Amino acid sequence: MGGGADVWDGYGERLPGALPASRWEDHVRVVETASTPVSCVDLPRDNAPTLVLLHGISAGWRWFAHLFPALSEHYRVIAVDLPGFGASQFSRRHVTFDGLGDSVVDLCDALDVHAPVVVGHSMGSLVGTRAAVRHPSRLGGLIITGGPILTLVHLGRHPVATFRRNPRSVATLVAESAMVGFPVPSSASRLVAESERLRRALLGGFVARPDLLDTEVVRATMHDLGAPATFPALVSAVTRDPGRDLEQVQCRTRILRGDGDALSPPEDVETFLSRVPSADEVRFAHTGHWPHIERPRRFVEEVHRFVSSDDVALGPDPSPRR
């Protein structure tokens, strides 16, 4: 074989300064918004843009903790526990994606944050998109990763048609739903994180190389499983399509997508790009549904490029941009 770069270089790496998620718990605060208390990690930085980080289903701020040192060097970082997830109390007003999107804007109001760049992963990409649709003048930008998710939200209304169109996506969602609905004891999360065999079995549908992920990050992803809003949020998509009215998105939008993402098939990306003129896509090669965990260095570079508009140099074999 030739001397080309290893496609797995940097995959799941631990960035300089990264700490276990537990080390950030002193930075957690509960913010009284106009509608509900919201728990978040708030890492201030004067005279800097603000990033608002939104987690996926049955998750919390810990999903981004490994990125805090790298991001907080340049930005104010607010990593949210959405209502009914993490340490934020359940709120019936916020079990829909519209309600969750409104809660993000309410949090920004309470913190006097203007024009933040919202970064949403998986379910958080739906929440961020709903915030952009319903409050088009409030966001300074939107970064979608592990998304967009447009086809799967029709599963409850059109199960047979959705399965026929994307059987892999449906199978992955079913597996995810079975995993996220129940809390996991810390001893079990430690066992999974430290076993390559268990990581492959449980995470193989979501990421390209479970065996290469940082064990501390894997443990963090299991901390908030079983959140009370998990299934109400999923069920809400049956009655109100969270992918509607995409034409109302006005802010600059970028999709950071793994080319092997089973939950966001290429047709979802094409649909989103066709309906949101301000959107473009950056594709991560050899990456699944967790780009910010699988390719943390590249992810931080792309966030910085989007926010600052700097054309920073990437490593070898850059993935295509459209």
Task: Walk me through this protein's architecture.
With 322 residues, the protein is an alpha/beta fold. It has a single domain, classed as 3-Layer(aba) Sandwich (Rossmann fold), CATH 3.40.50. The chain contains twelve helices and eight strands. The chain has helices at 68-72, 97-110, 123-134, 159-165, 167-180, 186-194, 196-203, 215-221, 230-239, 266-275, 291-294, 296-308; strands at 28-32, 37-43, 50-54, 76-81, 117-121, 141-145, 253-258, 279-284. Helix 4 packs across helix 5 (167-180) and helix 6 runs antiparallel to helix 8 (215-221). This is Pimeloyl-ACP methyl ester carboxylesterase. Residues 49-296 form the AB hydrolase-1 domain. GO terms for molecular function: catalytic activity. Pfam families: Abhydrolase_1.
Which structural traits does this protein have?
single chain, 322 residues, alpha/beta, Rossmann fold, eight-stranded mixed β-sheet, disordered C terminus, AB_hydrolase_fold, catalytic activity, AB_hydrolase_1, Epox_hydrolase-like, Pimeloyl-ACP methyl ester carboxylesterase
